[in-house]
User: Which sequence fits this backbone?
């Protein structure tokens, strides 16, 4: 499945006004279960912070999480980095128009980007599965964090996280370089990169997997087949969203023994 053409179509629609862009972010926060898990961890982290701070959004994409953090934490300086210059330009323009001057975006490669002891928090959502040289990136994260700083990662697990459930099966998401992380594998890689404390938990258990198929996979498949589905999309979501949101709540509030996603916290 090629996401970029669909992303561009959505970008064209939701970039027409500031309010449409904000609605887009709200929809992503609502639809994406990983956003539920990530925002809960961000709230927990921010509750313990005092004064100003520096945050790196490593792989900022559309700017969804940077918007959430910049809007909530006016005393924090948010730096978003991404490999797509068009998204960097787009985010800088939007955040300036939205009056969020505590966030800026730069073009950078995580394989080479590091700033010694610069950040209190590094957020990395749905990025590590796209990078073959992950140990280099984790070392860069470790060097870039202040002592006691937190690295928060959301990434697919090896339990079907790229919608791959059998050996030899093709991923639903073509851009992934690995099917997903084994929990112990990512723990060991973080330890070898200098992180002193590591916590990892599964997300997207059975409730989350059903919700993901209803709210994300099936609509994306249909949009890839025909643009006409844009017309039917609101009616589709009106029918499935109550069930998807209930399933997301269950996934968020009950510990999952296994799942297709991993939420990893590592302290420097």
Assistant:
């Amino acid at each position: 499945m090629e996401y970029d053409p669909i992303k561009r179509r959505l970008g064209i629609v939701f970039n027409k006004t500031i309010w449409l862009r904000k609605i887009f972010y709200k929809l992503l926060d609502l639809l994406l279960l990983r956003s539920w898990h990530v925002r809960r961890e961000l709230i927990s982290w921010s509750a313990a912070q005092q004064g100003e701070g520096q945050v790196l959004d490593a792989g900022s994409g559309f700017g969804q999480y940077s918007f959430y953090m910049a809007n909530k934490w006016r005393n924090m300086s948010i730096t978003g980095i991404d490999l797509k210059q068009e998204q960097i330009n787009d985010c800088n323009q939007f955040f300036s128009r939205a009056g969020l001057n505590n966030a800026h975006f730069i073009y950078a490669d995580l394989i080479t980007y590091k700033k010694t002891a610069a950040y209190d928090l590094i957020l990395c959502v749905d990025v590590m599965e796209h990078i073959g040289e992950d140990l280099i990136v984790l070392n860069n994260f470790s060097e870039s964090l202040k002592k006691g700083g937190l690295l928060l990662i959301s990434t697919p697990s090896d339990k079907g996280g790229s919608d791959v459930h059998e050996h030899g099966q093709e991923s639903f998401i073509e851009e992934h370089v690995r099917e997903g992380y084994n929990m112990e594998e990512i723990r060991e890689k973080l330890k070898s990169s200098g992180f002193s404390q590591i916590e990892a938990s599964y997300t997207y258990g059975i409730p989350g997997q059903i919700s993901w198929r209803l709210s994300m996979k099936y609509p994306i498949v249909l949009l890839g087949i025909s643009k006409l589905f844009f017309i039917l999309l609101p009616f589709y979501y009106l029918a499935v969203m109550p069930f998807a949101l209930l399933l997301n709540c269950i996934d968020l509030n009950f510990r999952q023994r296994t799942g297709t996603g991993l939420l990893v916290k590592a302290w420097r």
Remarks:
- The CA atoms of residues 6 and 61 lie 14 Å apart.
